[in-house]
């Protein structure tokens, strides 16, 4: 990539990942081959196979749900402080195996090691620590003096934060006394299966957590299983709707964390350099494969030219390449299918008349890569302004007044997150109250903390994960 400085390669050793030729599913406290197909998980940075997994079949779903049901009674009756001890143990083990998990995540997902090491793994451990602290205080959480767990939770997660999403789902469920059947995404099963090892080593009673690698059919089997009392799903809005339809009228509980099309709103009094860093972090972080990515930049007209020039200068210094290199800013796209979707939508942006720009950027020949891309001259009707791209692609729109910014930001079927950049505290508060988004960041973007609830409005889903609110999704009403 064109840069004023050339950096020597600084790759993290892949040996740290302790990659094995094959991984097994985890049912009733034991590892075993699934009854489904043997599949290879691929390194998206170079398309080489990493390991083989014999995926779960439908009979494994039955076994896992039965094991979770048997484990539920004793687990839910354990005093909260005892459940908390298991969660603390898991949290500490994630920290101890942090380097291994970070390298494994970067290999399987394609995200830069800097992100997996500094964001995904520490935040996953932090979620276990945080909910461990709640386990013996549920009676003080505002859900009545003696809140009860729901039962067996079926949890289905996507590929963009494989370990972190597993932690978001498992930690609050266990703290509240539920048992779990979790399915990672088909392209990123490895860290969830290592988390299963950690759970086994923490001596959790068999059946409390079951982890089934598999594709959409296994997700569907978990959703449809009569022995599952609650579904927690993170993924696309389309699949969320399918799941909602299939649970309708069943009386079973559901929480959905779906897509987003966040607006990052920059006012003319914002510190431009700081805003540029926030925009870069908001959309080029994790290759834009973040549900809450700041994929629409709304900039006040009077500072638009200055901001866009600064942003382009900054993008010229980003390093795209080997996810294991500690200097890499932008890694690989997770799969060929995701890359094809990004290409299709960016081609549509050009066809609809927006202006496309990318910094000079040499992409590796093998693997799934997409250069950071900025579209200017975008109108609200363009597909790149409406549809979730889930790639390192920013659509820039302008506004003149705060009301116009609010109207444009809210003009989307989604409502997961938004950002506001301004020096005025009163403007932050008034914008936050008018934006229909679950999370509104002020003068920052993409910050996560286990104590803070996260979730959407409208087609971004319902229910909250994280914080005290995250307990509610796992407590009977
Ligand atoms: P996806 O919906 O295709 O898959 C998500 C998970 O659902 C995978 O494990 C998949 O195997 C499973 N699945 C697919 N079809 C299913 C079905 N019919 N029944 C049950 N399970 C099924 O999404 P994806 O492409 O893996 O992930 C990207 C999407 O996830 C994006 O739209 C993104 O916005 C969203 N996402 C949202 C959040 C959030 O917190 N709101 C977080 C991360 C990702």
UniProtKB/TrEMBL annotation:
Aldehyde dehydrogenase domain boundaries: 32-475
Name by which UniProt lists this protein: Aldehyde dehydrogenase family protein
UniProt KW keywords: Oxidoreductase
Family: Belongs to the aldehyde dehydrogenase family.
The UniProt record lists the keyword DNA-binding: no
Entry annotation: catalytic residues: 257
Domain of life: Bacteria
One Pfam family recorded for the sequence: Aldedh
Origin organism lineage: Bacteria, Bacillati, Actinomycetota, Actinomycetes, Jatrophihabitantales
């Amino acid at each position: 990539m064109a840069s004023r400085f050339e950096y020597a390669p600084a790759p993290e050793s892949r040996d740290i990942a302790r990659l094995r030729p094959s991984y097994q599913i985890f049912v009733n406290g034991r590892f075993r081959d699934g009854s489904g197909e043997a599949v290879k998980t691929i390194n998206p940075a170079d398309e080489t196979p990493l390991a083989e997994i014999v995926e779960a079949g439908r009979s494994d779903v039955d076994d896992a749900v039965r094991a979770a049901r048997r484990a539920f009674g004793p687990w839910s009756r354990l005093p909260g402080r005892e459940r908390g001890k298991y969660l603390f143990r898991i949290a500490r083990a994630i920290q101890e195996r942090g380097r291994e998990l970070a390298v494994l995540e970067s290999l399987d997902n394609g995200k830069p090691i800097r992100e997996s090491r500094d964001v995904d793994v520490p935040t996953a451990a932090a979620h276990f620590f945080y909910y461990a602290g709640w386990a013996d205080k549920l009676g003080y959480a505002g859900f009545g003096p003696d809140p009860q767990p729901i039962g067996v939770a079926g949890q289905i997660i996507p590929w963009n934060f494989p370990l972190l999403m597993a932690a978001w789902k498992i930690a609050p469920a266990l703290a509240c006394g539920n048992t779990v059947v979790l399915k990672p995404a088909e392209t990123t099963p490895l860290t969830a299966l290592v988390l299963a090892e950690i759970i086994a080593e923490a001596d959790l009673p068999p059946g409390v957590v079951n982890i089934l690698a598999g594709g959409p059919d296994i997700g569907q089997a978990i959703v449809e299983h009569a022995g599952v009392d609650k579904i927690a799903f993170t993924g696309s809005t389309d699949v969320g709707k399918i799941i909602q339809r299939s649970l309708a009228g069943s009386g079973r509980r559901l929480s959905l964390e779906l897509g987003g099309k966040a607006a990052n709103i920059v006012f003319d009094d914002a510190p431009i350099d700081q805003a540029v860093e926030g925009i870069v972090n908001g959309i080029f972080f994790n290759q834009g494969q973040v549900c809450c990515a700041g994929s629409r930049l709304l900039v006040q007209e009077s500072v638009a030219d200055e901001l866009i020039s600064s942003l382009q200068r900054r993008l010229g210094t980003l390093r795209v390449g080997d996810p294991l290199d500690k200097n890499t800013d932008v890694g690989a796209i997770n799969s060929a299918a995701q890359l094809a979707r990004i290409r299709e939508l960016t081609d549509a942006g050009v066809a609809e008349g927006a202006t496309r720009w990318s910094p000079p950027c040499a992409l590796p020949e093998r693997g799934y890569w997409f250069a950071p891309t900025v579209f200017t001259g975008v109108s609200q009707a363009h597909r790149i302004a409406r549809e979730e791209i889930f790639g390192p692609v920013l659509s820039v729109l302008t506004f003149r007044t705060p009301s116009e910014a609010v109207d444009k930001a809210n003009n989307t079927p989604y409502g997961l997150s938004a950002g506001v950049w301004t020096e005025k505290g009163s403007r932050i508060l008034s914008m936050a109250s008018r934006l229909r988004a679950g999370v509104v960041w002020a003068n920052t973007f993409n910050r996560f903390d286990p104590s803070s609830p996260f979730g959407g409005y409208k087609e971004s889903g319902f229910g909250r994960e994280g914080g005290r609110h995250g307990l509610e999704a796992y407590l009977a009403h």
